[in-house]
Design a protein that fits this description.
With 338 residues, the protein is α/β, with parallel strands linked by helices. The protein has a 5-stranded mixed sheet with strand order 10-9-11-8-12. Strands 4-1-5 form a 3-stranded parallel sheet. The chain has a two-stranded antiparallel sheet with strand order 2-3. The longest helix is centred in the last third of the chain and has 19 residues. The protein is globular, with a radius of gyration of 20 Å. The protein starts with a helix and ends in a 29-residue tail after the last helix. The N terminus is likely disordered.
């Protein structure tokens, strides 16, 4: 298995090196669309409706980048990827950016030849079980069958957790969240493990969500964020600073509704630079002055995106927690626009 992993990593890294030799910004402009790698379907983060229209927390990142680069948030081609296919899709150039629940790790950032450009959701791995199982802690899962997505960090985390606690388990491998949901509800596994946010999103789609509980243990750190191919620094800067713009906008009170007014009337120098009212930040990354303004005016600030897709007033009902601004006790912190 080790040799297979090494060969796979070398293949992905080789593809990434080749694909990154071209300027992604030029390719996106020439195509007139942003090819965004997304999940195969996770409500709240990225999923299509009955008409095929995509929406969600991660989808808004795709849309913000398209608005910044192409001037239109609708100019996105969504490419569904699984835990196994996502890295090959990015490395080969099938997608320009990967914006799906993907954890920033050392090996992915270095060995696979990708650049994570920031964290848009601080998460951790958890467990979901049916209430009828009578379990209230992950420490009671010794001998359990557990649904787990292949090609993810959750596989190693799960093995580490059970080994550290001298427990055993039987993995039930799945490739997509839809497959996990199907097997879990069919009692093919006692528990489902993935990012806690993903569990909450999955449970929200059940006919009887109250019949299932999220266990209290969080067994890992899962900093999730968009990533690009290593070697195209300009494109990496564009994606990174678009995410920073959404985060900074919330901190400075810039919203989807007031972005135009703030651009014209704000006396805050940081806001004026952010929205392109002064300075030449856009030119530094190959874009015009209004790139960040368009991203914010299209999708809203980070807080608006969170509340619309994941917040307490949605079926997923997630609190901000670690994903609150640094000024509110969270970890969100945008680098200065200067």
């Amino acid at each position: 298995m080790k040799s297979t992993y090494i060969l796979g990593a070398m293949a992905v890294a080789g593809l990434a090196a080749s694909a990154a030799s071209a300027a992604t910004l030029d390719d996106v402009k020439a195509a007139g669309t942003l090819k965004c790698g997304v999940t195969t379907g996770l409500v709240g983060f990225g999923a299509p409706d009955a008409a095929g229209k995509w929406s969600g927390f991660d989808v808004s990142v795709c849309r913000a980048i398209a608005a910044a680069v192409l001037g239109d948030a609708e100019k996105v081609t969504y490419v569904p990827t699984t835990g196994k296919t996502r890295f090959t899709a990015l490395a080969s150039g099938e997608v320009d950016v990967l914006a799906r629940n993907t954890t920033w790790t050392f090996s992915r950032d270095t060995d696979l030849g990708f650049d994570f450009v920031g964290v848009n959701y601080y998460d951790g791995q958890g467990f979901m079980v049916p209430k009828a199982l009578g379990v209230s802690s992950a420490m009671e899962l010794d001998g359990a069958t557990i649904c787990i997505q292949t090609g993810t960090t959750t596989e190693l985390n799960l093995a580490d957790f059970f080994r550290a606690n001298n427990m055993s388990y039987e993995p039930v491998p799945i490739e997509t969240n839809a497959e996990a949901q199907q097997k879990y509800l069919a009692n093919a596994c006692d528990a489902y493990t993935t990012d806690a946010s993903g569990l909450a999103a999955t449970r929200a789609t059940f006919e009887a969500p109250a019949d299932h509980i999220l266990l209290p243990e969080i067994i890992s750190k899962e900093p999730l964020g968009p990533l690009v191919r290593h070697g195209d620094n300009q494109w990496g800067d564009i994606v990174m600073w678009t995410l920073n713009a959404l985060i900074a906008a919330e901190e400075y009170g810039v919203t989807k509704a007031n972005a135009s007014d703030m651009k014209a009337n704000s006396t805050n120098p940081e806001v004026k630079r952010l929205l392109g009212a002064e300075g030449d930040l856009g030119a530094m990354i190959g874009l015009d002055a209004d790139w960040a303004y368009r991203a914010i005016a299209s999708e809203g600030n980070y807080g608006e995106i969170f509340e619309a897709n994941l917040g307490p007033n949605t079926a997923i009902a997630l609190e901000r927690g670690l994903n609150a601004q640094w000024t509110a006790g969270g970890l969100l912190y945008a680098a200065p626009f200067r």
